[in-house]
Amino acid sequence: MLLTLDLNDARPLHEQVAGAIRRAIADGSIGPGDRLPPARDLADALGINANTVLRALRELRDEGLLEFRRGRGVSVAGRADGRALLVQRVHDLLEEARRYGYRREDVIAILEELP
Fold it and tell me: Which residues form the HTH gntR-type domain (predicted)?
């Protein structure tokens, strides 16, 4: 599983990690029953603190995407539901729009102009 973070992104790192895992589940890179690498290994690969990765994993567990099993690690519980994936993509869009100087209201106006 290849995850990348954008250190120029204003979002907290745990949200970026959760978003990357959520996208990997949604696009089928990792599927139901697949085990994730240990949090420490993910943290080392990303160059961040293990507690940051654990916070992201707990968030995804609370969404029902991951299962924690003592002695067996963390595995994917199911596919990302459409709403969770859409929320992540909209969040990414708003972050990109901010980088170009657009506000949330500007993005909404653009969406309302679409057919």
Answer: 11-79
**Is 28 inside any structural domain?**
yes
Q: Which of 1, 18, 19, 14 is closest to 96 using CA atoms? A: 19
Indicate whether this model's pTM tops 0.85.
Answer: no
Query: Is residue 50's pLDDT more than 90?
Result: yes
25: tokens are 């589940």
Q: Does a structural domain hold residue 3?
A: no
* Phi–psi pair at 87, nearest 5 degrees: -60, -45
Q: Looking at residue 44, which CATH number applies to its domain?
A: 1.10.10.10
Quick one: pLDDT at residue 92?
Answer: 83
3-state secondary structure 66-112: EEEECCCEEEECCCCCHHHHHHHHHHHHHHHHHHCCCCHHHHHHHHH
Q: Which residues pair with 68 in a beta bridge?
A: 74
Is the pLDDT confidence value at 80 over 80? Answer: no
pLDDT over 90 at 43, yes or no: yes
- 């978003």: which residue's tokens? 19
